[in-house]
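Standup notes
- DV: blocked on the single-chain target, sequence here:
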Amino acid sequence: MTTLVTGGTGLVGSRLLRRFVEAGIETRGLVRPGKELPAGVTAVEGDILDPATLPAALDGVTDVVHLAALFRTPDEEQIWRVNRDGTHNLITAVQQAAPGARLIMASTGNVYTAALTHPAREDDPLSPWAAYPASKIEAETELRASGLNWSIIRLPFVYGDQDGHLEALPKMAADRSWHPARKVSMAHHADIAAAFQLALTGTFDGRIVNVTDETAPSIYEVAQLLGEEYPSSGEPLEDPWQGQMDAGLARSLGFRATVPSVYAAARDGRV
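- DV (later): unblocked, structure below
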């Protein structure tokens, strides 16, 4: 049993690979020349934007975890190339070189439409409001129609392992004028890895699954936790469910957050 991981040098992927190795999962990482992967991972040079490099990477693979994506950049054309076209290349390569492999793709909670009346569920409407979620929606759609054994994990705000992501949140929120009461679903890297390990067992096959921890903190609370100032407000919060995801399906399938909240992570020195 061999798992190929794309995007293994990224914020999520690098930490996921280390945990796969610790769990004894035979792991292969698709990596561009000059990039390094954690110890214990077999590096295979390739790029999802170069289809010719993919068949060799897929030789003998039983599972593919597709994390490679582009997000925070003003280059919308490149976002589409990586997230939609790169995923298309990978799907085509799996169909041809490893048709029996399970393909697990990371997506995002940003795909959900605004103004929901509850935390976003997997069957709620989607809204392509920007290049990143729009490209992810198209990638999801192609994967679901591919005829492969697939699953899609929609991720929340991911943090932990001293990655600096949580520390950047208050400034990012302030730059976007987010209301201090706006809440954000989150998950620690440890639980992202646990979700993908569960998906490797087949538990998520043929499903889209939201993964989050147990508590969505407000932007104001995150800033307080970090010892930073954030403007307070008594104005009504418009679209109160924006940024929150319902992980009831994941829990029903056996997922349990080992880091239940950002507060627990801070208490245990895991931020």
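- Follow-up: Residues 5 and 103 are 10 Å apart (CA to CA).
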